[in-house]
Amino acid sequence: MTSYNNTRATLAIAKASLRSIFRSPSAVVFSLLFPLIFIVIFANIGGGAVSVDVGLAKSSDTLNPIYQVLKNYKVVRITTKQSQAEMNKNLDKGSLDAIIDIQKRNGLPAFTIDVKYTAASQEKGNMLRSMLKSLLYQFNTQATPNNAPKVATMTETTIKGREYKYIDFILPGQLGFSLLNIGVFGTAFVFLSLRQTLVIKRFFATPVKRYSIITGEMLARVSFALLGAIVIISVGHFAFGFTLVNGIVTVLNMLLLSFAGLIIFMGFGFIISGIAKNETSIPPLSNIITLPQFLLSGTFFSTAAFPSWLQPVSNALPLTHLNNAMRKIAFEGAALGDVTHQLLILLLWGIGIYAVAIKTFKWE
Amino acid sequence: MAKQPIITVNNLVKQYADFTAVKGISFEVYEGEIFGLLGPNGAGKTTTLEIIETLRIKTSGEVTVDGFSIDTQANQIKQRIGVQLQAAGYYPGLNLIELLNLFSGLYGVRINPLDMLAKVALTDKAKAQYKTLSGGQKQRFSIATTLINNPRIIFLDEPTTGLDPQARRNLWELIREIRSAGTTVVITTHYMDEAEELCDRVAFVDGGRIVGINSPDSFIDELVAAGFERKKQVKQANLEDVFINLTGKEWRE
Questions:
Q1: Rounded-to-integer distance, Cα A59 and Cα B249, Å
Q2: Were A164 and a residue from A131, A221, A230, A358 both cysteine, which residue would form a disulfide, CB within 3.0 to 4.6 Å?
Q3: How far apart are CA B215 and CA A29, in angstroms?
Q4: Taking the CB of residue B37, how many other CB atoms lie within 10 A of it?
Q5: What is the distance between the alpha carbons of residues A195 and A214, in angstroms, rounded to a whole number?
């Protein structure tokens, strides 16, 4: 008898599971259609409504390229007419979202930007922060390669200027939402139903190993989720101009991050499949996991907008950190190495969840 | 003609937390026979079967299947047996061909799914999902999945429960064919006419013990010799014969 091939068994399960997922309407609706609908809705209502009001300090230099680019952002409305005292007062009230002061220097760095945010408008402050970070990133990466003095290169470079659109905020959140749904609902349902309909028991009557069953199922869900992520990112990018700073590299970084997030969310699914008594108890249990994260993890609006007592809750949730990392990667051009803080928190969540999952998971 | 035992069960005990399901069962199944495990619900039939199938851990005793011990060689046993579980389901959303391909991956063998379906007369259902099949078709498909790895022994746990007389007779035919192809069959059933018709030998299990093991004919002869008489005179035909006579032999889907 030829030796038994575990990989073949694992792939057979992955293939069967993937087929089954694609034929299940709820999987496709919750993980693909809903996020896309939200993206379409928010991309359309969000775009015009959002604007960041920025005061330009009287002492600021206005001939520098950074200011020239910022001035042309549709979302940014720059005020120069107010006096410095008025600006400070308006910042205090939140009718101005920030005051910036750009100074030209003779040495390096060639420019310094001094930004004053306000606690009265944290959300828009964060938007501006993202925009400035990405703008500086672009300036710095374009200036350094030829080793020329930064001032010279900068004045010569024409910057297209990246616009921070609402889609840049909403898409990473919806991607996280999709991963959360596939991970939690999908995993919980499949393992409970395979256990209850004795499909797993029948599997055990074959030489298949337990880890093959788990790996095969995870592989199917990962493939489905990453395909979904590619669809969501593509629709966002081509239809709504979602910003991918470094193009395909950014997409790959986003997919790697999606993979990490999905592994954690599947851990929740394993736990629920173990503690759920029957199929009807899966939706409530899953909602306990997904709803708070859906609302509190910055899926629709920045977590900075929440009252301070809610901040620690929001900051404890894994989706918050996944969303933050995703936005940094997509818009600020960060690599996975730049979001180690978020990855570390996700890792801690992963360890905790799988420790519980190993205890609660049931085979029969 | 000396018969070769292919399954040996020796003093098998299965103890659950609050009761003992199997209390020291011993028997042998011979190669190439159809062996029936008979007995009321809760007698320990399914538990015994599942221990032999390596799906359940025994408390004590010895079981060897085709020369392999269930304690140390479960994997070799799994590769040599086919198992049909009472009321098992199949992976959701897949058609019969896809399910058979899944099982061929699980068993690590190459098969042509259509050949398997032809063996159980389900070729025309190749693209159907399991849940859309009739009761008889479901059981035939289950049996097809037990044949994928060309097993030495197949285990059928109440395969005819809930089937109409035509589907039942049709399944007997299939089981006989499998046996003629050289496969040993172990079956449980609640229908004594079925056991009498199908099995070469039967073991009666009650309260976790074997209370008798012999061929159906010998059992009946013994009972008659002991002076047993039926209250009602046995006629040349029974009501099931009438049913089949009136509705025809072809099974309905």
A1: 101
A2: A131
A3: 58
A4: 28
A5: 13
What type of residue sits at position A50?
V
Please identify, in words, the CATH class of the domain defined by B5-92+134-247: alpha beta
């309407």: which residue's tokens? A25
Is the ipTM above a cut-off of 0.85?
yes
Output Rg (C-alpha) for chain A, integer angstroms.
24
On the CB side of B243, CA atoms within 13 Å amount to 10
d(CA B137, CA B148): 17
DSSP for residue B95: B
pLDDT in tens, A201-242: 999 999 999 999 999 999 999 999 999 999 999 988 888 878
Residues whose CB is less than 8 angstroms from the CB of residue A360 and which lie 6 or more positions away in sequence, other chains included: A270, A271, A274, A275
- The rounded radius of gyration (Å) of the Cα atoms in chain B is 19
How far does CA A333 lie from the centroid of its chain? 13
Chain B residue numbers with beta carbons less than 8 Å from the beta carbon of A209 are none
Query: Which of B91, B97, B107, B141 is the mutation pick for testing A, counting most A CBs within 10 A?
Result: B91
Under a CB-based contact definition with an 8 Å cutoff, are residues A13 and B103 in contact?
A: no
Residue indicated by tokens 């659109």: A165
Question: Closest-CA residue in chain A for B148?
Answer: A206
Cα–Cα distance between A38 and A177 in angstroms, integer?
10
CB within 8 Å: A19 and B98: yes
Residue A31 corresponds to which tokens in the numbers above? Answer: 């993980």
What is the torsional sign of CA A237, A240, A241, A242? negative
Give residue for tokens 């404890």: A316
Look at residue B132 and give its three-state secondary structure.
helix
Complete domains list, chain A, with CATH: 6-45+165-360 (no CATH), 51-156 (3.40.190)
CA distance A141 to A333: 11
d(CA B7, CA B151): 14
Secondary structure class of B205 (helix, strand, coil): strand
- pLDDT at res. A138: 76
Q: What is the DSSP letter of B125?
A: G
Report the predicted TM-score, pTM, of the whole model to 2 decimal places: 0.78
Average pLDDT, chain B: 91
Contact A39, A239 (CB under 8 A): no
Residues A202, B83 contacting (CB under 8 angstroms): yes
Least confident of A115-129, A265-279, A284-298, B215-229: A115-129
The token pair at B215 is: 């061929």
Q: Rounded to whole angstroms, what are the CA distances from B16 to B55, B56, B58, B69, B207?
A: 15, 11, 10, 22, 14
Phi then psi for residue A98, to 5 deg, are: -170, 160
Residue of A nearest to B90 (CA): A199
Instruction: Pick the closest to residue B200 from B191, B190, B212, B187 (CA basis).
Output: B187
Structure tokens at B229: 């008489």
Supply A204's token pair: 């055990």
Q: What is the dihedral of CA A21, A26, A31, A34, to 10 degrees?
A: 150
